From TrEMBL:
It holds the Pfam family RecG_wedge. Belongs to the helicase family. RecG subfamily. It comes from the Bacteria. Keywords: ATP-binding, DNA damage, DNA recombination, DNA repair, DNA-binding, Helicase, Hydrolase, Isomerase, Nucleotide-binding. It catalyses: ATP + H2O = ADP + phosphate + H(+); Couples ATP hydrolysis with the unwinding of duplex DNA by translocating in the 3'-5' direction. Plays a critical role in recombination and DNA repair. Helps process Holliday junction intermediates to mature products by catalyzing branch migration. Has replication fork regression activity, unwinds stalled or blocked replication forks to make a HJ that can be resolved. Has a DNA unwinding activity characteristic of a DNA helicase with 3'-5' polarity. This is ATP-dependent DNA helicase RecG.
């Protein structure tokens, strides 16, 4: 029933069906059922026309329709009329489907009119209003809310506005019975959580008797949405634990031990040891590992990655480490190559700029198994790259890698390689576990010892010369500084100009030859970027002027000052990432947030948070509160945030309830075969193909 084409619904027909498809993606009865109203209006509540004010957005009025007149010529041609009640008149205007409208509506009759008002020459008007004949007797004493559906200008002009869609939905609901919308949650759960039955919820989200009924319906359907998303992700993880086959890293061998005992430049923190152990256990079971490693900036994820790769090598497998940018890949390469110098393990780098002979040579050696560790950008997952026996894939700063890209890795090996995804807290912990419910989770929640917290201050533009004096003093002590300019993605050109202007200003404060400046930005050719970066790394230059391209990963321990220009233009997690570039060496480090004098409340709040905490988890939570869910890096691709009704932030409590419940259920009944659970399983089956996750397990 629900899969029937919408054209079969009474009152639709082929033409309207086509419009519904094109404009609203409504193809079937089911799509129409899930086209939820964005508001309800009380039909008995009317605004007197004389009371309409410019502050009103949508209003409902009733009155007598005046005669219709055509005005204007050609493209300006329009149909105009007036609606009059006891208190005033409202202008009505139509630009499209003039002939159709002339045929349908009748001047002199009472109409109920709904729409967005605007003011034109001091008078209220409504363009393409939604209209229906008005009969006050018919609705008298009735207690009901009328749904208003999202529609489009085009549909409205074809007489398929929100009101008409409401009629169609009402027809649809009359045709549906409980067996078309079967319950998918067991009665015990409905009772425990006080949830409305499913069929009833669909009725009430569209046509509620009152607000309470509506809210109950929304709550039920939101819960269902969250719960099944959780269930699906958890099942993927469980199935991997139970049935997947993975390469086995059964022993800790020579490479690992030699490195660990003789060449490790520092003692691992307990958190690093704990995570390493989790990885060991996970990769030794014969199941595929799929693990998310979260750890604040500077918490030392790279060494964990390296040790894991040595573990793979000891068991005869190749590894690949993927970084989001060329710069970062190069830095990883240099760092790791140096660390592994004394060991017989070949490390290579492959990026988009590796070309010609060099590329060919690397590809051949990879296929022959002569390269143990490959480091690169996403170029490494491109088709021609064949491994001899890939056993471990590490994805650094994963929020830049999509799910689809991860899936492509599977094609590179006969047995799926283990996967470790590393990220520096772009999302709060609970949220991460929700959004990545299909992954196992590790966290490094401790910074290496001796790290001095970065002192963070907020300064205004008019303190610029004092700030620059401070930078000079630090440079005089032999340190290096970053000066970062914002990147406003909408306009690359503007960004570039901003940066150049900024660079000139910096130059006036820091003239050559006393000072040398490196500059790096997104539009620069890679070799130049690399060269400028290299000069900063080897301390040829004292100052690095850059846009956020250096945001992630870059490691120059001698740098002690991070100056962020127009800091108000950055988001919290970005500021935190940038700040993480300093405080990596032994010296005391500083982060200076430079802003204009006039700051919005939210920007002020961000500066306050930055100066008061250095904890990435806290910052991520705050970031979420300030920005809302629409924009959390790292969760967008995971797909779980694309809920229709639920909102992972505002419905956090519900998310947690659903999560706990899922875990409880799956622990007892991982196959969902117990009585009362089949309905869940059946529902998941009926949804099959809806999720890309099945490809990943
Ligand atoms: P991130 O987690 O941000 O990727 P990195 O792996 O780049 O952090 O590590 C940051 C810095 O801390 C590096 O210079 C690294 O050598 C150093 N480091 C990592 N672990 C330790 C440790 N246990 N003790 C001391 N320094 C460490
Ligand atoms: Mg890192």
């Amino acid at each position: 029933m629900l899969s029937s084409p919408v054209a079969y619904l009474k009152g639709v027909g082929p033409q309207r069906a086509e419009l519904l498809q094109k404009e609203l993606n409504i193809f079937t009865f089911n799509d129409l059922l899930h086209h939820f109203p964005f508001r309800h209006i009380d039909k008995t509540k009317l605004t007197p026309i004389g009371n309409i004010s410019p502050r009103d957005e949508y209003v409902q009025v009733a009155g007598i329709l005046a005669p219709l007149e055509t005005a204007g010529e050609k493209r300006g041609r329009r149909l105009v009329s007036l609606l009059q009640d006891k208190t005033g008149t409202l202008d009505l205007v139509w630009f499209q489907s003039i002939n159709l409208i002339k045929k349908i509506i009748q001047p002199g009759q009472p109409y109920l009119v709904y729409g967005r008002v605007s003011f034109f020459m001091g008078k209220p008007q409504m363009v393409h209003p939604e209209m229906e004949p008005w009969d006050p007797e018919k609705i008298k004493g009735k207690d009901f809310l009328e749904p208003i559906y999202p529609s489009t200008e085009k549909l409205k002009s074809k007489y398929l506005g929100g009101r008409q869609i409401s009629k169609l939905t009402s027809v649809l609901l009359q045709h549906l019975s409980e067996k078309d919308i079967p319950e998918n949650l067991p009665p015990s759960m409905l009772e425990e959580l006080k949830l409305m039955p499913r069929f009833q919820a669909y009725q009430n989200i569209h046509f509620p008797k009152n607000t309470t009924a509506y809210e109950g319906a929304v709550r039920r359907l939101k819960f269902e949405e969250i719960f099944f998303a959780q269930l699906r992700l958890n099942l993927v993880r469980l199935e991997r634990h139970r049935f997947s086959k993975g390469v086995v890293f059964e022993k800790v061998g020579d490479l690992f031990n030699r490195f660990y005992n003789q060449h490790l430049p520092f003692e691992l923190t307990n958190a690093q040891k704990k995570v390493l152990k989790e990885i060991r256990v996970d990769t030794g079971r014969g199941k595929q590992m799929n693990r998310l490693l979260q750890g604040d900036v500077g918490s030392g994820k790279t060494i964990v990655a390296l040790l894991s790769m040595l573990l793979a090598a000891d068991n005869g497998y190749q590894s690949v480490l993927m970084a989001p940018t060329e710069i970062l890949a190069r830095q990883h390469f240099q760092g790791i190559k140096e660390l592994l110098e004394p060991l017989p393990a070949e490390v290579a780098i492959l990026t988009g700029t590796t070309k010609g002979k060099e590329r060919k040579r690397i590809l051949e050696k990879l296929a022959a198994g002569e390269i143990t560790i490959l480091i690169g950008t996403h170029a490494v997952i491109e088709d021609p790259v064949q491994f001899h026996n890939l056993g471990l894939v590490i994805i650094d700063e994963q929020h830049r890698f999509g799910v689809a890209q991860r899936a492509r890795l599977w094609e590179k090996a006969t047995l799926p390689p283990h996967v470790l995804v590393m990220t520096a807290t772009p999302i709060p912990r609970t949220l991460a576990m929700t959004a990545y419910g299909d992954l196992d989770y590790s966290v490094i929640d401790e910074l290496p010892p001796g790290r001095k917290p970065v002192q963070t201050v907020h300064r205004y533009e008019n303190d610029r010369s004092l700030v620059m004096d401070f930078l000079k003093a630090e440079i005089a002590l032999g340190r290096q500084v970053y000066i970062i300019f914002p990147l406003i993605e909408e306009s690359e050109k503007l960004d570039y100009e901003n940066l150049m202007e900024g660079y000139d200003v910096v130059k006036t404060y820091f003239p050559e030859p006393q000072y040398w400046i490196s500059m790096v930005h997104g539009k620069m050719p890679v070799h130049q970027k690399d060269e400028n970066m290299r000069r900063f790394v080897v301390h040829d230059t004292q100052i690095m002027v850059a846009t956020t391209v250096i945001e992630v990963g870059v490691n120059v321990p001698n740098a002690s000052v991070m100056l962020i220009e127009s800091a108000e233009k950055f988001g919290l997690s970005q500021l935190h990432q940038l700040r993480g570039r300093v405080g990596r060496g032994a010296e005391k480090s500083y982060c200076i947030l430079l802003t204009g004098k006039k700051l919005g409340n939210e920007a002020r709040e961000r500066m306050k948070i930055m100066t008061s905490t250095g904890n990435g988890f806290v910052i991520a939570e705050k970031d979420l509160e300030l920005r809302g869910p629409g924009d959390i890096e790292g969760t967008r691709q995971s797909g779980i945030l694309s809920f229709k009704l639920a909102d992972i932030v505002n419905d956090r409590v519900m998310v947690n309830t659903a999560k706990e419940l899922c875990e409880r259920i799956l622990k007892e009944d991982p196959d969902l075969s117990q009585p009362g659970h089949e309905m869940m399983r059946n529902f998941l089956h009926s949804q099959k193909g809806k999720t890309a996750w099945s490809k990943i397990s």
